[in-house]
Amino acid sequence: MTDDQKTTHFGFQTVNEAEKAGMVHGVFTRVASKYDVMNDAMSLGIHRIWKDAMMDWLAPRPGTKLLDVAGGTGDVSFRYLKRAPGAHATVLDMTESMLVEGRQRAEADSMADRLDWVVGDAMALPFKANTFDVYTISFGIRNVTRVQDALNEAFRVLRPGGRLMVLEFSQIPNDLMQKAYDLYSFNLIPVMGQVIAGDRDSYQYLVESIRKFPDQETFAGMIRQAGFGQVKYRNLTMGIAALHSGWKI
Ligand SMILES: C[S@@+](CC[C@H](N)C(=O)[O-])C[C@H]1O[C@@H](n2cnc3c(N)ncnc32)[C@H](O)[C@@H]1O
Predict the structure, then answer these.
(1) N or C: which terminal CB in the chain sees fewer CB atoms within 10 Å?
(2) Burial category of 83 from C-beta neighbours within 10 Å (exposed 0-12, middle 13-18, buried 19 and up)
(3) 93 CB less than 6 Å from ligand 1?
(4) pLDDT at position 220, please?
(5) In what order do the strands lie in the sheet containing 88-93?
């Protein structure tokens, strides 16, 4: 099978691999201006607690170099820089409109000399091997066409001793809770997308993409396959989201 015949998923649709990135780019270009307000509305502000939990586990160190892939409007990088004096963050994202929104945030101004904003693809990072101390990707990796390629790239650009941390929606181990969560997400989130962002379809894609993402153990296996050691995960809010950590050792 040639590359242009391979298929993948875009939410619950099956699409050619070659088409997916363009479709994901379309989603985030459309929602960029409402992205931050929708995050608070959909999660009732809980995404902030999850991102803080990410920082607690990561424990950012002064003077380190962070690469925040699929960094969007900068939430993770801002948190990292606030906790690590003298650190530097590179926010990379394939959707320029998301980066443009991030650069307009008040935090971006006050941290401008410690931040870079780069348009690029998680599967082909425009950086040399062994460059960064920390690699983060928050609610980004489930949108990437070939997740394993992105993890392999994370391993390549981290320096030896560097750390990967992924924050992503995950699977709730309890069936009843999963059903309740599905009811909420499939019925309410697309409607909120329509009302707040004027875009139901993009938020329908977002909830479907959550269901297609591998469970905690399977994803931990993919991180190990990329070469990472000491791979561990922590569930957040009963597994609605999870943090995965690995080291380049
Ligand atoms: C849900 S947003 C997450 C933004 C931010 N990290 C956060 O936690 O709020 C997902 C982001 O992933 C980006 N993205 C998706 N696929 C990508 C890829 N292959 N390379 C780089 N960025 C990608 C999208 O453009 C979008 O900005």
Answers:
(1) N
(2) middle
(3) yes
(4) 98
(5) 115-119, 88-93, 65-69, 132-138, 158-169, 241-247, 229-236
Which one of 35, 36, 39, 93 would you pick to mutate in the ligand 1 pocket, going by the greatest count of ligand atoms within 8 A of its CB? 93
Domains, the chain = 31-173+203-247 (3.40.50.150)
pLDDT at 101: 97
pLDDT for 1 equals 54
- The CA 67 to ligand 1 mean position distance, Å, reads 13
**Residue-wise over 5-36: b if at least 16 C-beta within 10 A, else e?**
eeebebbeeeeeeeebbeebbebbebbbebbb
What one-letter code names the amino acid at 23? M
Amino acid identity of residue 240, one-letter, is I
Residue 1: CB partners within 8 Å, gap ≥ 6?
A: none
DSSP of 139-150: S-GGGSS-HHHH
First to last CA, the chain: 35
Tell me how far the alpha carbon of residue 124 lies from the centroid of ligand 1, in angstroms.
14
The parts of the chain modelled with pLDDT lower than 50 are none
Which secondary structure element, helix H or strand E, spans residue 107, and what is its range? helix 106-110
- Condensed to tens digits (0 to 9), the pLDDT of residues 42-51 reads 889 999 999 9
| Residue 90 near ligand 1, beta carbon < 6 Å | no
Please give the structure tokens belonging to residue 155: 């391993």
